[in-house]
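fyi for ur records
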Amino acid sequence: MIIVSNTSPINNLAAVEQLHLLKALYGSIIIPEAVYRELTGCGPTIAGCREVQTYDWIEMREVVNRSFLESLLGRVNEGEAEAIALAIELNADKIVIDENRGRALANEYGLKVTGVLGILVEAKNRGLIPLVKSVMDRLIDEADFWVSKSLYSQILQLAGERSEERRVGE
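which gave:
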Protein backbone atom coordinates (compact mmCIF):
# COMPACT_ATOMS: atom_id res chain seq x y z
CA MET A 1 0.00 0.00 0.00
CA ILE A 2 1.37 3.41 -0.99
CA ILE A 3 0.39 6.29 1.30
CA VAL A 4 1.62 9.85 0.79
CA SER A 5 1.23 12.37 3.61
CA ASN A 6 1.22 16.13 3.80
CA THR A 7 2.68 18.05 6.77
CA SER A 8 -0.30 18.75 8.99
CA PRO A 9 -1.43 15.14 9.59
CA ILE A 10 2.07 14.20 10.78
CA ASN A 11 2.40 17.37 12.85
CA ASN A 12 -1.02 17.05 14.48
CA LEU A 13 -0.85 13.32 15.19
CA ALA A 14 2.65 13.74 16.66
CA ALA A 15 1.41 16.63 18.82
CA VAL A 16 -1.07 14.30 20.56
CA GLU A 17 1.23 11.26 20.57
CA GLN A 18 -0.78 9.34 17.98
CA LEU A 19 1.64 9.29 15.03
CA HIS A 20 2.00 5.54 15.52
CA LEU A 21 -1.51 5.18 14.08
CA LEU A 22 -0.13 5.85 10.59
CA LYS A 23 2.31 2.95 10.96
CA ALA A 24 -0.34 0.68 12.47
CA LEU A 25 -2.82 1.45 9.67
CA TYR A 26 -0.51 1.64 6.66
CA GLY A 27 2.85 0.11 7.57
CA SER A 28 4.76 3.01 6.08
CA ILE A 29 4.17 6.44 4.60
CA ILE A 30 5.97 8.54 2.02
CA ILE A 31 6.51 12.28 2.32
CA PRO A 32 7.85 14.68 -0.28
CA GLU A 33 10.90 16.86 0.36
CA ALA A 34 8.81 19.98 1.05
CA VAL A 35 6.94 18.20 3.85
CA TYR A 36 10.25 17.08 5.35
CA ARG A 37 11.54 20.68 5.18
CA GLU A 38 8.33 22.06 6.72
CA LEU A 39 8.60 19.66 9.65
CA THR A 40 12.34 20.03 10.23
CA GLY A 41 13.04 23.61 9.18
CA CYS A 42 11.74 25.28 12.33
CA GLY A 43 13.74 23.26 14.82
CA PRO A 44 13.20 20.23 17.02
CA THR A 45 10.31 21.72 19.00
CA ILE A 46 7.91 21.18 16.06
CA ALA A 47 5.77 18.09 16.59
CA GLY A 48 6.85 15.49 14.05
CA CYS A 49 10.33 16.98 13.50
CA ARG A 50 12.26 14.24 15.27
CA GLU A 51 9.99 11.51 13.99
CA VAL A 52 10.41 12.24 10.27
CA GLN A 53 14.16 12.21 10.77
CA THR A 54 14.33 8.97 12.76
CA TYR A 55 11.36 6.68 12.03
CA ASP A 56 12.31 4.16 9.37
CA TRP A 57 8.68 3.77 8.27
CA ILE A 58 8.55 7.41 7.11
CA GLU A 59 10.31 7.70 3.75
CA MET A 60 11.13 10.92 1.94
CA ARG A 61 10.94 11.01 -1.87
CA GLU A 62 11.57 13.68 -4.47
CA VAL A 63 8.92 14.74 -6.96
CA VAL A 64 10.18 13.92 -10.45
CA ASN A 65 7.68 15.79 -12.64
CA ARG A 66 8.73 19.35 -11.83
CA SER A 67 6.55 20.96 -14.52
CA PHE A 68 3.42 19.32 -13.10
CA LEU A 69 4.48 20.41 -9.63
CA GLU A 70 4.87 24.00 -10.85
CA SER A 71 1.32 23.92 -12.21
CA LEU A 72 0.00 23.03 -8.74
CA LEU A 73 1.95 25.67 -6.83
CA GLY A 74 -0.39 28.53 -7.63
CA ARG A 75 -3.31 26.64 -6.15
CA VAL A 76 -1.91 25.22 -2.90
CA ASN A 77 1.23 25.58 -0.77
CA GLU A 78 4.47 23.81 -1.58
CA GLY A 79 3.99 20.87 0.80
CA GLU A 80 0.49 20.17 -0.47
CA ALA A 81 1.57 20.55 -4.11
CA GLU A 82 4.48 18.13 -3.66
CA ALA A 83 2.30 15.64 -1.76
CA ILE A 84 -0.32 15.67 -4.52
CA ALA A 85 2.27 15.45 -7.31
CA LEU A 86 4.08 12.61 -5.54
CA ALA A 87 0.84 10.72 -4.87
CA ILE A 88 0.02 10.92 -8.59
CA GLU A 89 3.54 9.88 -9.64
CA LEU A 90 3.53 6.89 -7.30
CA ASN A 91 -0.08 5.96 -8.08
CA ALA A 92 -0.69 6.14 -4.33
CA ASP A 93 -3.53 4.26 -2.72
CA LYS A 94 -4.26 7.27 -0.52
CA ILE A 95 -3.10 10.79 0.29
CA VAL A 96 -3.33 12.07 3.85
CA ILE A 97 -4.11 15.79 3.76
CA ASP A 98 -6.31 18.04 5.91
CA GLU A 99 -6.48 21.46 4.28
CA ASN A 100 -9.66 22.03 2.28
CA ARG A 101 -7.94 23.43 -0.83
CA GLY A 102 -5.44 20.58 -0.86
CA ARG A 103 -8.18 17.98 -0.41
CA ALA A 104 -10.24 19.53 -3.21
CA LEU A 105 -7.26 19.57 -5.57
CA ALA A 106 -6.34 15.97 -4.71
CA ASN A 107 -9.94 14.96 -5.42
CA GLU A 108 -9.79 16.76 -8.80
CA TYR A 109 -6.95 14.41 -9.75
CA GLY A 110 -8.85 11.34 -8.59
CA LEU A 111 -6.79 10.66 -5.49
CA LYS A 112 -8.34 8.87 -2.55
CA VAL A 113 -8.13 11.35 0.33
CA THR A 114 -8.22 11.03 4.08
CA GLY A 115 -7.19 13.30 6.91
CA VAL A 116 -6.47 13.15 10.61
CA LEU A 117 -10.12 12.66 11.56
CA GLY A 118 -10.57 9.90 8.98
CA ILE A 119 -7.48 8.23 10.38
CA LEU A 120 -8.98 8.35 13.87
CA VAL A 121 -12.23 6.76 12.69
CA GLU A 122 -10.31 4.06 10.81
CA ALA A 123 -8.08 3.47 13.87
CA LYS A 124 -11.13 3.02 16.10
CA ASN A 125 -12.77 0.66 13.59
CA ARG A 126 -9.61 -1.47 13.67
CA GLY A 127 -9.45 -1.44 17.48
CA LEU A 128 -6.31 0.71 17.65
CA ILE A 129 -7.90 3.40 19.82
CA PRO A 130 -10.87 3.03 22.18
CA LEU A 131 -12.48 6.42 21.43
CA VAL A 132 -12.20 8.97 18.66
CA LYS A 133 -13.65 11.71 20.88
CA SER A 134 -10.82 11.77 23.39
CA VAL A 135 -8.15 12.04 20.67
CA MET A 136 -10.17 14.59 18.70
CA ASP A 137 -10.58 16.68 21.87
CA ARG A 138 -6.82 16.54 22.45
CA LEU A 139 -6.22 17.66 18.85
CA ILE A 140 -8.51 20.65 19.43
CA ASP A 141 -7.15 21.53 22.88
CA GLU A 142 -3.44 20.77 22.47
CA ALA A 143 -2.70 21.07 18.75
CA ASP A 144 -5.15 23.91 17.93
CA PHE A 145 -6.74 21.63 15.33
CA TRP A 146 -9.87 23.37 14.05
CA VAL A 147 -13.04 21.31 13.75
CA SER A 148 -16.45 22.79 12.97
CA LYS A 149 -19.35 21.88 15.21
CA SER A 150 -21.05 19.93 12.42
CA LEU A 151 -17.88 18.02 11.48
CA TYR A 152 -17.25 17.20 15.14
CA SER A 153 -20.72 15.63 15.40
CA GLN A 154 -20.37 13.89 12.04
CA ILE A 155 -17.04 12.27 13.02
CA LEU A 156 -18.45 11.05 16.34
CA GLN A 157 -21.43 9.61 14.49
CA LEU A 158 -19.14 7.83 12.00
CA ALA A 159 -17.19 6.42 14.95
CA GLY A 160 -20.38 5.25 16.65
CA GLU A 161 -19.82 7.57 19.60
CA ARG A 162 -22.27 9.80 21.36
CA SER A 163 -21.90 13.48 20.69
CA GLU A 164 -21.69 15.42 23.90
CA GLU A 165 -21.88 19.19 24.06
CA ARG A 166 -18.50 20.73 23.35
CA ARG A 167 -17.54 24.20 22.24
CA VAL A 168 -16.00 23.84 18.81
CA GLY A 169 -15.82 26.13 15.80
CA GLU A 170 -18.94 27.12 13.98
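The beta strands are 3-5, 29-32, 58-61, 94-96, 113-114. thats all i got for now
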